[in-house]
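Milestone 3.1: sequence recovery, worked example.
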């Protein structure tokens, strides 16, 4: 984390402020009411107004205005708002953005009076929000990737559950492909998506970055093993060599048996319930690992309060309200988002859903990814190289070395900052 906060305009540019100036917080007016501005994205922005009236009833001196941002533009909008000194009082952020927003000094660390919000959390998700030993984001909802599968086809192939080792799962995939018939595959691994390979890469004991997260570690034996397993699924005809844009409709192809195993997060539960025919039998399963149940990356969104906000106490009251297990359980019923607080999973709406059950076990095995601002660019480069490997241009060992080379280039500034004592 940078010790001295950089100047906004020198870091991110003068023009950015103009793009975000219309979204600034409203503050306090003469009527004595504190007006908080909350930026939220997608489904959350749409549904937040359903649960905020109770907060305003409990806190009559506070009013909340929700401003919606599209996910596709949210990351850049937050950075441009920081450059223009026009961030809201608080916002939703993707968990992988927390380290970047903390590095530029935008986020208020969790104050001591709100420390109880950090209990009852999934450890890997909370660790994602911990920067330099201090938690700066409060998990709001969680997600991770696991496997959706055609339980009817798996049963016809002679299995009552997804085997939890790579070898066992691959054997089951071959059996399911035979059952599904000519022209089918077993698993969908879009070559332009990094999440599936990242999940395989998390199974090993070696970290993905080394030397204080300043260099890639994709040539480690465990990641090479992940690359080899990933490539074998294409080489053996179990996965189509296709990008996500070449799959016209995921639920239609899943329903007709074009593939029977699909990596995705909790949002797919609603999609499959609403779009698959009632006769299509499906279930969720944890991710297999080399020798047993495997890990996955923690995802979801966190709530952050921005340093510039003059309404810190009011903003943290709202964070506290949205973090209450009962409120999170209610929000799950509205949006399908999985609660960040583990105790909220005991509520009937969550506990009685058979498709959700596998997510709790998967989240308990989640591993936090490296907390460097360059991480999203690194995994993008990782997948570019992996696609070349899948298409036969390079070997897994050469792919690992190439990913390291690209990661090292992206991390060059971080190495310099550490050498200068400007980062830790």
């Amino acid at each position: 984390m940078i010790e001295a906060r950089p100047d906004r305009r020198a870091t991110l540019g003068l023009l950015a402020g103009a793009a975000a100036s219309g979204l600034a917080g409203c503050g306090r007016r003469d009527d004595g009411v504190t007006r908080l501005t909350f930026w939220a994205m997608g489904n959350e922005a749409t549904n937040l107004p359903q649960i905020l009236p109770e907060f305003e009833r409990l806190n009559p001196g506070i009013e909340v205005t929700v401003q919606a941002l599209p996910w596709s533009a949210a990351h850049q909008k937050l950075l441009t708002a920081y450059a223009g000194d026009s961030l809201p009082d608080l916002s939703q952020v993707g968990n992988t953005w927390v380290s970047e927003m903390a590095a530029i000094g935008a986020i208020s660390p969790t104050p001591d009076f709100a420390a109880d919000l950090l209990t009852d959390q999934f450890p890997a998700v909370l660790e994602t929000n911990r920067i330099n030993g201090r938690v700066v984001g409060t998990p709001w909802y969680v997600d991770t990737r696991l496997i959706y599968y055609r339980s009817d086809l798996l049963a016809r192939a002679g299995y009552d559950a997804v085997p939890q080792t790579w070898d066992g799962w691959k054997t089951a995939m071959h059996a399911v492909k035979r059952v599904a018939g000519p022209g089918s595959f077993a698993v969908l691994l879009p070559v332009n998506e990094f999440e599936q390979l990242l999940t395989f890469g998390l199974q090993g004991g070696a970290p993905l970055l080394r030397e204080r997260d300043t260099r890639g570690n994709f040539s480690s034996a465990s990641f090479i093993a992940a690359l080899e397993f990933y490539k074998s699924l294409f080489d053996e005809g179990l996965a189509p060599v296709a990008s996500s844009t070449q799959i016209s409709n995921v639920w239609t192809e899943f329903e007709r048996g074009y593939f029977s195993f699909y990596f995705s997060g909790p949002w797919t539960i609603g999609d499959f319930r609403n779009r698959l025919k009632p006769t299509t039998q499906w279930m969720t399963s944890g991710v297999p690992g080399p020798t047993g149940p495997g890990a996955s990356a923690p995802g979801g969104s966190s709530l952050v309060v921005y340093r510039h906000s003059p309404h810190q106490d009011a903003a943290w009251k709202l964070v506290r309200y949205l973090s209450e297990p009962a409120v999170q359980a209610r929000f799950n019923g509205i949006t399908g988002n999985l609660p960040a607080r583990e105790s909220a999973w005991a509520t009937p709406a969550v506990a009685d859903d058979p498709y959700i059950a596998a997510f709790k076990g998967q989240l308990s095995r989640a591993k936090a990814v490296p907390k460097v601002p360059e991480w999203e660019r690194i995994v993008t480069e990782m997948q570019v190289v992996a696609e070349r490997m899948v298409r036969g241009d390079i070997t897994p060992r050469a792919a690992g070395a190439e990913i390291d080379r690209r990661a090292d280039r992206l991390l060059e500034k971080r190495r310099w900052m550490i050498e200068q004592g400007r980062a830790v």
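Residues 8-143+299-353 form a domain with the D-Maltodextrin-Binding Protein; domain 2 fold (CATH 3.40.190.10). The chain has 20 helices and 15 strands.
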